[in-house]
Each structure stands twice: as C-alpha cells, then as structure tokens.
Specification:
This protein is mostly helical and about 350 residues long. It is built from 15 helices and 2 strands. Strands 1-2 form a two-stranded antiparallel sheet. The radius of gyration is 29 Å and the shape is globular.
C-alpha cells in the first residue's frame, strides 16, 4: 500500500509539464491584441487625415469670388498690378499645378501664407488658438459637470417631476440654433430687455485700456459669460440626454440586482456599479464634442466678436483667403480626428470588454 502511494504521488522534485503550444499561442494573442488595436486606430487616423488634406484643396476652390479683386476693392490698381498679385498668390497657374504646390508645402508642414494678412497661416492659427481654447475649454468643463450630474440624477429618478423638467429643458436647448440663442442672450443680458438691465458686454474678449490684474481678470470673465453660456446650453443638453439614456439601459441589468441583494445601499449601487458602466457613451461624446466645438464655435465667436479661430475663419471666407481657409480646415478636422482617436484609446481602460474583443 505504501509502495502504491509512493508510485502514484509526484515527488517534490517532479518536473512541472511545460504549457502546450496552444496555451503559448493564446498568451501571445492576448499580449498582441492591444498593439493590434492601437495600430488599427492609428492607421485609420492617418487615412482620415490624408482624406482631409485632399478634400481641403478642392473644397474651397468652388467658392465664388476673386481674392485679388476682394483685396484691392476700392483701391486704384492697374490691370498689370492685378496680374502681378495673381502671380504672387499662385492662382494664375493651372489647377493641377496649384494642387501640386499645395501637396508639396502641406507635406512639409507649411500651410502657406495668408492673402489678406501676408503672414504664415500657422502663425495666425497660433495667435488665435488661445482665445478659442479658453472659450471652448471653459464651456466643455462646465457642460460636462452639469450634464453628467443632472443626467445621472434624472435617470435614477426617472419619471419624477424633476426628471421631466430636466429632460424637457435639455430637449429645447438641444434643438435650439446656436446663433439664435446667442442673439437672444445679447438682446436680454447685454443690451437690456424690459426690467433686465444690460449687465455684460456685447462682444470682444476684453475692454481696451483696462489696467490692473484683478480688474483685468474680472473684465475677461464678464466678456466670457455670454459666449460661454451659449456653448454650455447646447452642449450640456446633449450630455444630459446621453447620460440619462445610458444609465436607464444599465438600470435593468442583473448585476445591479445582485449588488442590492448583497446589501449595498442605493447610492453605492449607483456610484460603484451603474454609473461607471454607463459612462462610456458620454465620455466618447465629450471628446468628440471637444473636437467639434473648436470648429463649431465659428458662429458663436462671430456673433460675440470673440477673437478666436472661428472669427478668423469667417474673415477668411469673405475674401476668400484660400491658404487661410485650407489651413483652418485642416486644423479643425485634425482636432476632431485626434479627439476621436483619444476616445478610442480610452475605451479599453473604461470598458475591459473592448480590450478582450
């Protein structure tokens, strides 16, 4: 009996069998999966950017108007000077030659020189970028904080009076044109309407001649209120409705019933289980909106005379300033594409199911 036991039981020095080829291949496949996911997203991003660069040239060539005539309107210029300007801008060349020049300088990172400013387009974008980031960044932070909080509470208490009120307001704001809302805010809170006095500036980013640190900060904030409120009102409504719908989908899941059966309080079930699983669509929307808001601020910046990229784009359209339009189009599109890439790369961290798929 002792001999039988000794024969069947492995000794302490018995070698452990090595994993088979299938197990090793499985480990390699799991290890390579994140890299494959990353490479796929990067390739998609590069293809999208190439499509943007190609589209940017032809899109603005169909605009009516002569840049040279627009820039020399009201000035005594001869026909020879007009011909010289067209040659200087390169718009007297055949379309295929202009396209070749465009691809050549774009591949080198050169966005060209603005017709009306006689300044490199990249420098103009850099000069006006801060104003747009200041406006869009502030609006996005406020809208995300409000939208997520209100959306979570509306979903958790769906059907209540507060839920119906928040949902109704969000639907109205989401369907409201941005330019119309901005004009209404100017009429009511800048010009003054009825018993409401004009409290905020009608436009601009700062009052000329303002001195002192604290007065300058207060002046900047006063100028920021109306354009920021315009963007927040529309964007926050999307976050409320998206977060509410995502959380309502999660509320019927079995894992929430299990969490309650284990004795967790309702607030803990919502905070630790329901909300993290419902965040993915809203986080995606926040990053996408961050990219879209940079280009979508054109109307808001134009209405409020905000000196950002939106106003610069509007000024370029009036000429048309082709290099500036092309450069801004590439920049706006790149912002959306990069924010989309960031959202895609965050997926595996927010939802492990994406990493395992």
């Amino acid at each position: 009996m002792a001999l039988s036991s000794a024969a069947t039981a492995p000794g302490p020095s018995a070698p452990v069998p090595a994993p088979g080829p299938a197990a090793a291949a499985g480990r390699r496949r799991v290890a390579a999966l994140p890299l494959r996911y990353l490479v796929g997203k990067l390739v998609t991003t590069l293809i999208s950017m190439l499509a943007v660069v190609l589209t940017g040239f032809f899109l603005f060539r169909v605009l009516p108007g002569d840049p040279v005539r627009a820039l020399t309107r009201g000035k005594p210029v001869s026909d020879a000077q007009l011909v010289a300007l067209r040659h200087q801008f390169g718009i007297d060349k055949p379309m295929i030659a202009q396209f070749g020049d465009y691809l050549g300088r774009t591949s080198r990172g050169d966005l060209g020189t603005s017709y009306q400013y006689s300044t490199p387009v990249s420098g103009l974008i850099g000069d006006h970028l801060w104003a747009t980031v200041y406006l869009v960044g502030t609006a996005t932070l406020i809208a995300a904080a409000l939208g997520l909080r209100i959306g979570i509470r509306s979903a958790w208490k769906h059907g209540s009076r507060s839920d119906r009120a928040h949902t109704g307001v969000a639907l109205v704001l989401w369907s409201m044109p941005t330019f119309w809302l901005g004009l209404i805010l100017i009429v009511v809170f800048a010009v003054g309407w009825g018993p409401i006095p004009g409290m905020f500036p009608t436009g601009g980013m700062a009052t000329p001649g303002m001195h002192g640190l604290l007065p300058s900060i207060g002046d900047h904030l006063r100028h920021l209120v109306l354009p920021c409120a315009t963007l927040v009102a529309v964007v926050y409504a999307q976050y409320v409705l998206t977060m509410r719908a995502s959380l309502l989908d999660e509320m019927g899941s079995d894992y929430l019933t299990t969490a309650r059966a284990k004795g967790l309080r309702d607030d803990e079930v919502r905070r630790r289980h329901a909300v993290p699983n419902a965040l993915l669509p809203t986080v995606t929307l926040i990053f996408l909106n961050l990219g879209v808001a940079v280009s979508g601020s054109i109307l808001t910046e134009t209405i409020f005379s905000w000196p950002g990229l939106g106003s610069l784009f509007y000024e370029a359209l009036t000429v048309p300033d082709l290099p500036l339009l092309e450069g801004l189009f590439i920049f706006f599109s790149a912002t959306v594409i990069v924010m989309n890439l960031v959202a895609d790369l965050l997926y595996p961290f927010l939802d492990p199911r994406v990493r395992a798929s």
